[in-house]
């Protein structure tokens, strides 16, 4: 099963972000708690403000995709500098699992373009 949540990027000037699903929707038995579903993670993170080292960052989610036991999250952080990041985590992880990793990365950002794994 693959559940995908995707946002079409229209830049910062977009007035109405578009979100949508592609791929099969889970059956009732496969549904996880709301915070662990891709749409729950999207709701918890998109537009959220994070503060690291006294600087403010706004999260913009582009894509959340579950593939097997892994979840892939593509996002942008808008602040003094804009960053685009990709995270790999367990499919059931929630924002509570991802936010500390984002904040840790903001303490020592890199331009390497690597996928960041969430433990």
Major sheet description: 7 strands, mixed
Distance between the termini: 23 Å
Strand content: 35-45%
Indicate the structural class.
alpha+beta
* Average pLDDT, all residues: 76
Number of helices: 2
Order of helices and strands: EEHEEEEHE
Index terms:
single chain, 119 residues, alpha+beta, 7-stranded mixed sheet, 7 strands, 39% strand, disordered N terminus
Characterise this structure:
The structure is a single chain. With 119 residues, the protein is α+β, with helices and mostly antiparallel strands. 18% of the residues lie in helices and 39% in strands. The protein has two helices and seven strands. Strands 1, 2, 3, 4, 5, 6 and 7 form a seven-stranded mixed beta sheet that branches. The chain is globular. The two termini are 23 Å apart. The relative contact order is 0.18. Mean pLDDT is 76; it is low at 1-32.
In short:
Helices cover 18% and strands 39% of the residues. With 119 residues, it is an alpha+beta fold.
């Amino acid at each position: 099963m693959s559940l995908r949540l995707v946002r079409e990027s229209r830049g910062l000037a977009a007035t109405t972000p578009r979100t949508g699903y592609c791929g099969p929707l889970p059956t009732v038995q496969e549904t996880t708690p709301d915070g662990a579903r891709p749409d729950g993670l999207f709701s918890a993170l998109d537009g959220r403000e994070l503060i690291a080292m006294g600087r403010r960052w706004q999260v913009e989610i582009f894509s959340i995709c579950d593939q097997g036991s892994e979840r892939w999250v593509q996002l942008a952080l808008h602040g003094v500098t804009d960053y685009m990041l990709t995270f790999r985590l367990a499919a059931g992880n929630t924002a509570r699992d991802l936010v500390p990793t984002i904040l840790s990365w903001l303490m020592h950002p890199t331009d390497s373009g690597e996928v960041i794994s969430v433990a």
